[in-house]
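Table S2 (continued). Query chain:
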Amino acid sequence: MPARRRVADKPTLEGELVRLRPLAARDADGMWEIVTDPQSRRVTGTTATFTRAQINRWCAEVAAADGRIDWAVTAGGSDDYLGEIVLNDIDEQNGSASLRLSMRPAMRGRGYGTEAIGLVLGLAFDGLGLHRVGLDVLAINPRAQALYEGVGFRVEGRMRDAYRDGDRWSDAVVMGILEDEFRGGSDRG
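Corresponding output:
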C-alpha cells in the first residue's frame, strides 16, 4: 500500500480567474447538483448512488482527510461553489498523486477548470515536491481529454471497457504529467 502523505496545510490557491479554497460544508448544494446530474455522472463514470446526508457529511469532513486535498473552485470574487478539484492518493514515497476535476454543468467551458488544474499542478510540483500527477478520463469524454492535453497531460495508455456507460462500456484513457513536462523542460514524445 502506498504511503499516503499527511497534508496538514491545505492552502487556498489564487489565480486570475479562480480561487481554490478547501472544500467545506457550505459546498454541499453544489456538489449535490454534480452528483445528481445525469451527464456529469455519465462522463465521470460515477455509478455509486449518494444520499444528501452522505454529501453533506463528505463536504463537512473531507478537509481533515489524509492523502488528499479537495478544493472548491470559486471565481469572480464570489465564494460560490462552481465545482471541485481534487489532488488525491498523494504518495510521498513515490512522488505521485491523482487529479480529478468536476464542474457544475453551467460552469463548464469557461476556463475555470484549465486555470484550476494549473494552480493544483503548481502546488503538486513546487509545494509538495511530487514527480508525477496522473488521472484517467473516459473515452466518451473527449472534451475533458482535450482539456487535460491542453495543460500538458500526455496519454499513457488505455484501459479497455473500464467503466459502464449505461448498457455499454467505455474505455478509460490513462494520462499523466511529470514535473519536468509541467516546467516545459522535457520532450518525452
